Amino acid sequence: MTLLLRTTAGRILEVHRRVLEAMWAYTQVHPKNTEAGGILVGHERQQGNLVLDRFTSPQPGDRRTRTRFHRSVEPHQELLNLMWLASGCTRTYFGEWHTHPEPCPTPSSIDLRSWRKHLKQEEARENGLHFIIVGTAITRVWHANQGGRDVTLIGETHTEFRV
């Protein structure tokens, strides 16, 4: 099943279930679990819908604690480059994801600063960027347009993980 959401630009974002399920494997259900994260990767359909069907998982060099995740640039960029080439140059950077050790995740001030920094960069392009936080009970998705300061919650779903 695909999660269908409407972006702030009025486009439909299709988030593949297998992407969510793979992220849910990093849900912080135990006190010793550290935050995890990576980048979101997808492509645009001819009809204008956006398809989020790939992501990167935590990589060597990422800094992970119980309440912080800092993504190392190089290994995630290398994976994105491979996905870009393997897709015939159609899959691209869609945004960021990470986990929080709380049931219904809310972006921290650090998250919001980081997201706004990404939105100012060329990587945001015309589709804006998407941000996913996996909480222990709810997974939430935000969207913002390039250069925008407002990051808008566009949807959520129950976090489903296997212990």
Automatic annotation (TrEMBL):
Keywords: Hydrolase, Metal-binding, Metalloprotease, Protease, Zinc. Residues 18-138 form the JAB domain. The keyword Metal-binding applies. Pfam families: Prok-JAB. InterPro entries: JAB_dom_prok. This is Integrative and conjugative element protein (TIGR02256 family). It comes from Deinococcus metallilatus. The lineage of its organism: Bacteria, Thermotogati, Deinococcota, Deinococci, Deinococcales.
